[in-house]
């Protein structure tokens, strides 16, 4: 733990909406009187029918139920668009920066209204009704936000699938959501490279069925169009009305499903609902990022991840902000791209992932320093623990020592930020996410569930509900209860380890389950393993994470081949390619080690603890191997470890 402290700068203290004393007072109140606190905060959005009940939640393993503002009604698109029109019709809602630096577009709130209404009417024309699931498989173009908000407007439930996922992964998500309408583009464009989105949808629909595919034109590439199933968005949009009334939704009606990896099985559909999610994301967007009217706010995530949902689309637009959407990548056409965009659009608030910082850091200071960045006021980090070295560089080089960094810890499941400094209130420590947000009750427990006090290290749980929390695993409430509420009954288990220091600041140490975090993307080792064993030459596979300088964690696969199959460099490459093809490029294994045998207990359980140590190169710390069925296996693996 770095002991360095960056106190709140004086100018921040002076203009802080929340200073330290206010933070303490409000935080305490939010835990003691959640009903009173959240009833007040919920006034920040417009309700159609006001709620009379605030919080009705149970974390009891056998009866998990999470309901906020349940008798209120509202509409998310109305809150993100319509209610801003009287004051902000001509204000820019979305700045879209294309992959090509000469291409950008400003969309006002009035234009956003029309675009979303048209999109909603196109969906309606194709039979989409309240509660229906719509799969969105789009690149980072404004239509992704239009489509999400269009679903919200008519009460359909979107399931956004990241454009980097393979046809197989897409098919699994379409099937699980029982989604009959898919929205995609002809191709995506990132870093000058084309991604064949429509072709991927076609391949997915060879395996699962859907009634309708709506195709947005991005590159104009030639694509196959299946008559009666596939429709060009532009042609459809020209046929519909430019206005569409919003649907009245219950606070607990579903807003979206977002698939995320766990330690076992296939990805889970995290279900988020309407009222609580919007209250939580808009409040946290305002306070964590110190968002103020007139700011240009930029989160570099993809809308395929929860960060894009909560902090590109819903939180910022609910606050009437100008949110920037970037189609490209940090190193195209050059490694100055992020900072050139900051200068071009005078970005005030910039939110990115440690993996991007580390990659840019490796390219040196010059590409940063040739840009001005004087518009920047605040920096943010999300997705994985940020190493103090990267934090210092981000602070000193990118922010020129002037911009606080908010290290925001949260998850797909949490809907919004749960632990983060509030700039202006909380002193910063490189590598620490510091303090819980209002209404969030973190605890550190030991493996038996004993709550640890004071400075300590253990497992991170949250003792009570907050409005942005996911409500269930789509179609499998039992899995929801088992995954999150059974390890420590009565508490939400995050899957993360954490330390708390003597000041009460939290330090997230990383996943304690079989989830790995590769470049801020979450993957289950079981998913990669099942892709590997699906290959005809593989008999068994065990996958673990290992420290990687840029990605945070890399993917290390131990693979046992079928009898009679010879290991070769060619086969190694084939397996790497195979996994990319099965899941998507984010799952590309960094190291494949052929293993004649895997370390197993006498009952046949693979001892991952040992494999992790081998992958980390910690050969001296393999621990007790005496319970292994064949201890000789370990020696062999150590000897053959690539790069040794
Ligand atoms: C996991 C959640 C939250 C949106 C992006 C990832 C890790 C996330 C931090 C942080 C340390 C972090 C955790 C968490 N994580 N942010 N600031 N410090 N770790 O969402 O894909 O659901 O992944 O990402 O391990 O459990 P996700």
Automatic annotation (TrEMBL):
Residues 23-80 form the Acetyl-coenzyme A synthetase N-terminal domain. It comes from the Bacteria. The modification N6-acetyllysine is found at residue 605. Mg(2+) binds at residues 533, 535, 538. GO terms for molecular function: acetate-CoA ligase activity. NCBIfam families: Ac_CoA_lig_AcsA (TIGR02188), PRK00174.1 (NF001208). This is Acetyl-coenzyme A synthetase.
């Amino acid at each position: 733990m770095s002991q360095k402290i960056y106190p709140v700068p004086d100018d921040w203290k002076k203009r802080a909406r929340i200073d330290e004393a206010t933070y303490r007072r409000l935080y305490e109140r939010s835990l003691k009187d959640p009903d009173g606190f959240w009833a007040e905060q919920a006034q920040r959005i417009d309700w159609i029918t006001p709620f009379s009940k605030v919080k009705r939640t149970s974390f009891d393993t056998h009866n998990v139920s999470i309901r906020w503002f349940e008798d209120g009604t509202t509409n998310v698109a109305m809150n993100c668009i319509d209610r801003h029109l009287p004051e902000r019709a001509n204000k820019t809602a979305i700045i879209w920066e294309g992959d090509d630096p000469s291409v950008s577009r400003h969309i006002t709130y009035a234009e956003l209204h029309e675009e979303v209404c048209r999109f909603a009417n196109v969906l309606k024309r194709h039979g989409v009704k309240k509660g229906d699931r719509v799969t969105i498989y789009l690149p980072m173009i404004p239509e992704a936000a239009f489509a999400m908000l269009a679903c919200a407007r008519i009460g359909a439930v979107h399931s956004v699938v990241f454009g980097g996922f393979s046809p197989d992964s897409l098919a699994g998500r379409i099937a699980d959501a029982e989604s009959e309408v898919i929205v995609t583009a002809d191709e995506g464009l990132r870093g000058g490279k084309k991604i064949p989105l429509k072709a991927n949808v076609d391949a997915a629909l060879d395996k699962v069925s859907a009634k309708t595919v709506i195709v947005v034109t991005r590159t104009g590439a030639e694509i196959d169009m299946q008559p009666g199933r596939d429709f060009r968005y532009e042609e459809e949009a020209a046929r519909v009305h430019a206005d569409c009334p919003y649907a009245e939704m219950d606070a607990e009606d579903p807003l979206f499903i977002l698939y995320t990896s766990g330690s076992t099985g296939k990805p889970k559909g995290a279900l988020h609902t309407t009222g609580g999610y919007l209250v939580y994301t808009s409040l946290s967007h305002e306070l964590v990022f110190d968002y103020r009217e007139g700011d240009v706010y930029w989160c570099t995530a993809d809308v395929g991840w929860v960060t894009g949902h909560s902090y590109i689309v819903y939180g910022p637009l609910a606050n009437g902000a100008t949110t920037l959407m970037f189609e490209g990548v940090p190193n195209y056409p050059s490694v100055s791209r992020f900072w050139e965009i900051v200068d071009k659009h005078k970005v005030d608030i910039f939110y990115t992932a440690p993996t991007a910082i580390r990659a840019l850091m490796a390219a040196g200071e010059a590409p940063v320093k040739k840009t001005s960045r004087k518009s920047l006021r605040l920096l943010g980090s999300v997705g994985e623990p940020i190493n103090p070295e990267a934090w210092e560089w981000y602070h000193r080089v990118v922010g020129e020592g002037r911009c606080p960094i908010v290290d925001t810890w949260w998850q797909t499941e949490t809907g919004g930020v749960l632990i983060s400094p509030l700039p202006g209130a909380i002193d910063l420590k490189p590598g620490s996410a510091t303090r819980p947000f209002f209404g969030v009750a973190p605890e550190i427990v030991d493996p038996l569930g004993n709550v640890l006090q004071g400075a300590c290290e253990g497992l991170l749980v949250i003792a009570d509900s907050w409005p942005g929390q996911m409500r269930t695993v789509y179609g499998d409430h039992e899995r929801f209860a088992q995954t999150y509420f059974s390890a420590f009954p009565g508490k939400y288990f995050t899957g993360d380890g954490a330390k708390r220091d003597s000041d009460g600041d939290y330090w997230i140490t990383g996943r304690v389950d079989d989830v790995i975090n590769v470049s801020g993307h979450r993957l289950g080792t079981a998913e990669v393993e099942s892709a590997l064993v699906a290959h005809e030459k593989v008999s068994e596979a065990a996958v673990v994470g290992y420290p990687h300088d840029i990605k945070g964690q890399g993917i290390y696969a131990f693979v046992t081949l079928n009898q009679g199959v010879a290991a070769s460099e060619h086969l190694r490459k084939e397996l790497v390619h195979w996994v990319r093809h099965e899941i998507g490029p984010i799952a590309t294994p960094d190291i494949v080690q052929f293993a004649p045998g895997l370390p197993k207990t006498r009952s046949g359980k693979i001892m991952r603890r040992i494999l992790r140590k081998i992958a980390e190169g910690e050969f001296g710390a393999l621990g007790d191997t005496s319970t292994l069925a064949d201890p000789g296996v370990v020696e062999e693996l150590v000897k053959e470890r690539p790069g040794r």
